[in-house]
Design a protein that fits this description.
15% strand, alpha/beta, 8-stranded mixed beta sheet, elongated
């Protein structure tokens, strides 16, 4: 093989690596984006990868129907990918930001949200067959490496074949490598690189929005490389024609514009990410309320290894069912897709989580309390008032560091992380419970709601079994729960799971507050106390100051037998019941 042909084969294999890198990374971007929008990490990744491979196969099957020059068709494919992939990303964001009419079927929205996955897979399906034929036309896989490298590679190859011979009938091939085998090998390497670089560099370093523009930029540069590499040596009217032809001149201009636009977006990735994500997040908050009822403004955001942290202000406009709130503004914190804390209900939530169960225990260092989650330290601040000993376990060290310094959260935790009887451990709650031999009087679960299958382990029979095993003889677990009337299917799965873990008694209650300052207390947050056996009765007159203040609300608080629902599966780590997840 001539040096020119060898160079061309190397260039085509390098191009194979780049386009495979982009193709696989696009699907990870879409999977993560769909998870952010709709929840369910496993579900979104499985469906996305499945649709990708099906559409990839369809595109490959139809590649034989592409006529004309292969380089020209590959050039067009890369331009289309540079256009379609970021446009598809923005389409998914728009579907989850715009308030759609109720008449639009949910199934239609589901299908449209996944159409970019299919489009990218279909276009990517053209790439390998085109590249394979281009390599074969250039000279195939024969002698693509320099002699010294070829000799070393052949020695390694013979050693690998000897190992293969133990399990299969194998002997070193004497014929030159086909273009297909080389292109496939480079495609697999590029796919692996795309997965690793996306997971370790692009997503944590740049975020989803800049990443999709980086990948589109690479597709645009691949198209321009083809343009420069093939158009100069093809003559007008020759056997192979020209890549830059009259009918493709417009597409060349489009390629230049798209590549330049993606380059600008990447160069200003921080600003692009901030502006687009804030626009989306503000629309998301406003969509949680009746049309026109709420204005939202994002004040700041950051991404930790485990969640997206957003601080924002929301202002009631006076429209909708709550006109008496008109003009009222408050600051809130969102973790992932769920509201973690708002000024109007921060106190009632923690009064329900901490003050009600603390009515059962001595206010002294001899009372051992375990807080799982609670990285904002607000629950720890409430416990500090009772002089108890606190072990806190939270997985997200970055968020806890943020909470220590953030001015908004500091107003609520008042430097509770400095409490002298607090021991904070950065760990997974389930892993911590499996390793510790300590027994706790009270366990507080200050964890996110069951909105994502990443959280399934925290709602599993194994997790609650560990909680039960780590309770003292009179110990109880306090957990915020969804209203059983609004989320009946979730509640049934949750209750059966808890029961399967060995809890037999529960005491349901609400936290109360005069939220709208009209002189009337409303139910604010729902909680359960859980116990694996009989426990002493409640006495509102002997409770904490909060319970005594609302003694009329808690006078009837009592233990009940945990119900069991027939036909409802428990949620297990190894056999998950997705009914325990809720769609907010």
């Amino acid at each position: 093989m001539s040096r020119t042909a060898r160079t061309e084969v190397f260039a085509l294999l390098a191009l194979t690596f780049v386009v495979s890198f982009c193709s696989f990374a696009y699907e990870f971007v879409y999977s993560e984006l769909l998870t952010v929008m709709y929840g369910g990490t496993v579900t979104q990744y499985v469906i996305t990868i499945g649709l990708y491979f099906v559409s990839l196969g369809v595109g490959a099957a139809l590649s034989d129907d592409l006529t004309g020059e292969r380089a020209s068709n590959l050039f067009r494919t890369e331009v289309y990918l540079a256009l379609v992939a970021p446009a598809g990303f923005l389409l998914i964001v728009a579907l989850n930001s715009v308030r759609l009419p109720q008449a639009v079927p949910a199934e239609l929205v589901w299908a449209v949200a996944r159409s970019p996955v299919v489009a990218v897979g279909f276009l990517s399906g053209f790439e390998l067959p085109l590249l394979t034929r281009m390599v074969d036309e250039t000279g195939g896989g024969s002698a693509v490496l320099p002699p010294a490298v070829t000799h070393a590679a052949e020695s390694l190859h013979r050693g690998v074949v000897r190992v293969l011979g133990v399990f299969w009938h194998a002997e070193p091939a004497t014929d030159a490598r086909s273009g297909l085998s080389l292109v496939l090998a480079m495609d697999y390497v590029g796919g692996l690189a795309g997965a690793v670089v996306y997971a370790q560099v692009l997503y944590p370093g740049l975020g989803l929005i800049p990443t999709v523009f980086v990948l589109a930029l690479l597709n645009g540069l691949a198209a321009l490389a083809l343009l420069g590499g093939y158009s100069t040596r093809w003559s007008v009217g020759g056997a192979r024609g020209r890549l830059v032809s009259r009918e493709s001149a417009t597409l060349v201009v489009v390629c230049l514009l798209v590549t330049a636009s993606c380059g600008v977006a990447v160069a200003n990735s921080s600003a692009v990410d901030r502006e687009l994500s804030e626009l989306y997040l503000e629309q998301q908050v406003e969509n949680d309320y009746p049309p026109g009822a709420m204005d939202a403004e994002v004040l700041g955001q950051r991404t930790t290894p485990y969640q997206h942290v957003v601080e924002y202000e929301r202002t009631w406009t006076g429209a909708g069912p709550n006109p008496h709130f008109a003009g009222e503004t408050e600051r809130c914190l969102r973790l992932g897709g769920a509201v973690q804390l708002c000024e109007s209900w921060a106190d009632p939530y923690h009064q329900g989580l901490v003050d009600v169960p603390m009515s059962r225990f001595a206010h002294s260092p001899e009372t051992d309390v375990l807080v799982i989650g609670g990285g904002d330290f607000v629950a720890v601040d409430a416990l500090r008032e009772y002089d108890v000993s606190v072990d806190q376990v939270d997985l997200d060290a970055a968020f806890m560091s943020y909470a220590r310094e953030d001015r908004f959260l500091s107003r609520w935790h008042e430097d509770a992380y400095e409490y002298d009887r607090l021991n904070t451990t950065v760990d997974d709650g389930y892993a911590f419970l499996s390793e510790t031999e300590k027994r706790y009087d009270l366990v507080l679960l200050d964890i996110p709601g069951a909105t994502d299958d990443d959280l399934l382990p925290l709602y599993s029979t194994e997790f609650y079994g560990s909680l039960r095993d780590n309770l003292s003889p009179d110990g109880v677990v306090a957990v915020w729960v969804y209203d059983e009337n609004a989320y009946a299917q979730h509640n049934k799965a949750f209750v059966n799971t808890v029961g399967d873990a060995g809890f037999t008694q529960y005491a349901p209650y609400w936290a109360w507050a005069d939220v709208d300052a009209d002189g009337t207390e409303e139910r604010v947050e729902r909680f359960y106390l859980l116990a694996p056996g009989d426990r002493s009765a409640f006495d509102a007159e002997e409770g904490t100051a909060y319970v005594r203040q609302h003694r009329d609300r808690y006078r009837d608080l009592r233990w009940r037998e945990l119900p069991r629902y027939n036909g409802v599966e428990v949620n297990s780590i190894f056999d998950p019941n997705y009914d325990v997840l809720i769609d907010t």
